[in-house]
Amino acid sequence: MGYSLNFSVVWRNFDKLWGGLVLSLELAVVSLAIGVVIGLVLAVVHVSGGRFTRMAIAVYVEAFRNTPLILLVYLVFYGLPQVVDLRYDATTSFVATLSVYAGAYLVEVFRSGLEAIPRGQIDAGRAIGLTPAQRLFHVRLPAMIRITLPALSNTFISLFKDTSVASVIAVPELTWGAQWINLNTFRIVEAYLMATAMYLATGYVMLFSLRLVERRFRVGRNA
Amino acid sequence: MNPPLLTIRDLRKSFGKTEVLKSVDLDVGRGEVVAVIGPSGSGKTTLLRCINFLEAYDGGSIRIDDSEVGYNDARKRRGERALARMRAETGMVFQSFNLFPHLTAAGNIMLGLTKVRRKSRSEARDIAKVWLERVGLGHKADALPSELSGGQQQRVGIARAVAMEPKILLLDEITSALDPELVGEVLEVVRGLAAEGMTMLMVTHEIAFARDASSRLVFMADGAVAAEGPPADLIASAEANPRLNSFLARFRASNF
């Protein structure tokens, strides 16, 4: 083993990694936001909808949860523009893919959260004369958010790691930054070690802060 | 005599093949406090849940102030908005409290006032304060349900229901989930409301309380009203009614 570590090239090109990390976080946040909207809407439709809508949603969920993300990324970026007249850059394409992918997971999270709300709380909402929409916004969704918050944090952290897949279509996020350093300096170990450390550190900071948020919310849960 | 506030005729309700209410007839007059007693499975809770249409009933009629609960004149189910408006007129207190866990004690009371009664937040907050004071929880306005004892939660539950100024208050075994030492504080609140003329229909296992606080006792068995009358009369006549007699025997043995 004659390899001696030399991080100086990594530091010289650190802007690639730092910029990549920032973009990774942006990709995760935007995809989560869009995914939450998709997940919420479909979860509400699922629990109140008929057989056909339930089935359609199940097909979407199963299809996206059982397909490797990297294939979806290829299909959307390279495949879709061949079939329909659409033009988008790699970043937009990736955000769209990751959002729909996240949505599939979040439908399930929100749906089980909605179904876990004690029946009596909904009855209480009906008994004071709330309309179905008012019960949804003032009783069911607030209760659901508390139930699903831990699962939501986990989804967010895995989305953050999933952003590394964007490197395959040259979105300049963190993994792509490490690849760039590797290709231009051949410092493969240093580049990937540094990227790994940055994923780890960021992941832990996220985990820690999300747990704090959960604890704040848990006070509001029924003992 | 004034027409009764609540009129129930030949009420029927089944869950699948199980006939829970076979034929219930019951009137409740304005300001009356009626206690429903009876063995479990006799349909007491279902009866209450039909009155505010938490359960749709299969046959017969329930009228409050001359309007049919849940159905229009053509016996079609009313729309959700109309149902919500009707439910706002009947307060309900639940066995398991069912407070909204994300809202404070005051918030629980304010939700119906702001969203259903369309009051401003400050007005709703004032009303909530008054009712919390009334149930002895003025100092707990900003406490979350998880920070309250069972008895306190149930008192908030009562305040939430009466703050809406319902025509009738339905109480569904409201002390059954409470530790014995917390029952008294809740019953005290109910007694106060009765003294003020609140119309109440309560299902209860607290026979002694039912006897003392109600103007009429209704004994339900097998999905129908088996006997009713002023508490003292009904209890005195129990000898003549084997089912009522055996039901009351259990309580006589202990503290009755």
TrEMBL record, chain A:
Membrane topology: Multi-pass membrane protein
Keyword field: Amino-acid transport, Cell membrane, Membrane, Transmembrane, Transmembrane helix, Transport
One GO CC term on file: ATP-binding cassette (ABC) transporter complex
Annotated ABC transmembrane type-1 domain residues: 21-211
Name under which the protein is recorded: Amino acid ABC transporter permease
InterPro entries cross-referenced by the UniProt entry: AA_ABC_transptr_permease_3TM (IPR010065), ArtM/GltK/GlnP/TcyL/YhdX-like (IPR043429), MetI-like (IPR000515), MetI-like_sf (IPR035906)
Keyword presence, Acetylation: no
Lineage, opening ranks: Bacteria, Pseudomonadati, Pseudomonadota, Alphaproteobacteria, Hyphomicrobiales
Alphabetized NCBIfam families for the sequence: HEQRo_perm_3TM
Membrane-crossing segments per the record: 20-45, 57-78, 191-213
Molecular function terms, GO-annotated: transmembrane transporter activity
Superkingdom of origin organism: Bacteria
PROSITE patterns reported for this sequence: ABC_TM1
Locations listed in the record: Cell inner membrane; Cell membrane
Family: Belongs to the binding-protein-dependent transport system permease family. HisMQ subfamily.
Pfam families membership: BPD_transp_1 (PF00528)
Example GO BP: amino acid transport
SUPFAM superfamilies found in the cross-reference section: MetI-like
TrEMBL record, chain B:
Keywords: ATP-binding, Cell membrane, Membrane, Nucleotide-binding, Transport
Record's subcellular location: Cell membrane
Xref: SUPFAM superfamilies: P-loop containing nucleoside triphosphate hydrolases (SSF52540)
Protein name listed in UniProt: Amino acid ABC transporter ATP-binding protein
Main location: membrane
Family to which the UniProt record says this protein belongs: Belongs to the ABC transporter superfamily.
ABC transporter domain: residues covered: 6-247
One MF annotation (Gene Ontology) recorded for this entry: ATP hydrolysis activity
InterPro entries assigned to the protein according to its UniProt record, in alphabetical order: AAA+_ATPase, ABC_ATPase_HisP-typ, ABC_transporter-like_ATP-bd, ABC_transporter-like_CS, MetN_ABC_transporter-like, P-loop_NTPase
Pfam families assigned: ABC_tran
Lineage: Bacteria, Pseudomonadati, Pseudomonadota, Alphaproteobacteria, Hyphomicrobiales
Organism from which the protein derives: Jiella endophytica
PROSITE patterns from the UniProt entry: ABC_TRANSPORTER_1, ABC_TRANSPORTER_2
Membrane topology, record value: Peripheral membrane protein
A GO CC term assigned to this protein in UniProt: plasma membrane
PANTHER family on file: AMINO ACID IMPORT ATP-BINDING PROTEIN (PTHR43166), L-CYSTINE IMPORT ATP-BINDING PROTEIN TCYN (PTHR43166:SF35)
